[in-house]
Amino acid sequence: MANSSYAGLPGRLRASAPGWTTRSDVVVIGSGIAGLTAALRVHAALNSRTDDGSANQGATVLVVTKTVLNAGSTQWAQGGIAAALGPGDTPEQHEHDTLVAGAGACDPDAVRALVTEGPDAVRELIALGTNFDHRDGVLSLTREGGHHRDRIAHAGGDATGAEIQRALIAAVEAAPEIEVIQHALAIDLLRSADGGVAGVTLHVIGEGQRDGVGAVHCRAVVLASGGLGQVFSQSTNPSVSTGDGMALAMRAGATLRDLEFVQFHPTVMYLGPDSRGQQPLISEAVRGEGAFLVDFEGNRFMQGQHELADLAPRDVVAKAITRRMHETDKPHMWLDARHLGAEFWEKRFPTILGVCRSHGVDPVNELIPVAPAHHFASGGVATDLHGRSSVAGLYATGEVACSGVHGANRLASNSLLEGLVFSRRIADVLPAELRAWAEPAPDEREAHLASADVRPAMQALMTDNVSVLRSEEGLSAALDALPELARTTGSEGVEAWEATNLLTIATALTTAALGRRETRGSHWREDFPDRDDDRWAGHFDARLEDGVVDVSFHPAPASDLTEGAIR
Predict the structure, then answer these.
(1) pLDDT value at position 209?
(2) Active site residue: 14, 143, 314, 324, which one?
(3) Is residue 314 flagged as an active site residue?
């Protein structure tokens, strides 16, 4: 089965010819936990001696970040990082919870790698200088939705991502041989005659020699550029999450997988019907500490919905909230955490407490208005167990990638762990696979740039038709409208490059969602409300050719099926 959507999408972004060039053996695009871990590990691996005494002495790594080093999604991670570190917990139990949350769409080998290598990866973060919270000298572990054990390590109460980011940035800054270019948008991959990586074009907002459009010639590119949150009107993602890495990979010929599996966090603070952009996240950890959901009548509507009630997997809770909103004709539900008390709030959730109060809600004494909003893309650039994409020399890790660990619905606090584990796995293989230097081949792909002005219309279209509730009618309406937006013509600049990237990913996501005629995990079809393993156990893969997004379904062989997982 294949679905094709013509949207006048470009084979490359229209941009000025590079005005400057530089070289680095490896370019890492992105500066969150996945990108900085990749940079540190790859550089160490490239410059370490092998068993035969050889090494890539002097091999260089360049980190490219869209704004500044700490501006990505990692710093916003409140809940923590999951790993089997507590008494009585095991990787096998973590594996089980991950597979159940993934609703039959996980790669079991990827999940096994995540949970077995995760504990050592977290211990390495601690050795690097990350200050996780402790209680009586023991690592403090909590529980979140979908977990049957306390296995979430956190820092600063609810500032885990910021603390991990701080430690990684300090490590990179202490390694002067790792170069960093900030305020740099990756535009397109440069490819050699064999179609593999030869470099990447960037637009840098800077001074001196590196300003404007330039080119970095390299032997490998590691994508760690994050997700696609700005496809929607409301998202917990920062403004930089515009799907740039996914779109760049797609234009270069890479396969994207499972794009229809977009996670909507159930408890995002509701700021009113006209609120747009990044929205305040009320971490699942708040429910892990005993908060619960109620409707406008005070009914605890999650009771009886799932064995874990308010701590059910995110897709279950998001659907229950949305269903209750529809049943009662209300714009949001409520989170009740008043019983936690002021002292607990101030110690455990100081960041969330401050955010709530800044919006006029005191959770110590008041209910918090919450509604689902976009949070995480489980799909992305299809990779193997070591981060390799379908393009030679192009690797991907973190939210930009589809490693197979999340399936149809990410288990809470597995995202930081994924970036950590699979960046380490890339470093394990990249030195031996490093391509020879190659000149970029002439680029015959059609160049185009959509207007930056279409972004609000695209976001509204996706929010109305491709968010928590999906149907044939809504998805078809979105696919009818997206091509006209894509065919507009924009002036060269960051806003237009971002808008074009978003339109590319929106088209692929919607096409995959239209093709998957079932409800599975975070993909909820009103017109196909049941999960159908007989027909839809498998993956939708998306590719871009001549302006056309082609999405094909690949059934899972019966031999690959396991309980709660498919390859």
Answers:
(1) 63
(2) 314
(3) yes
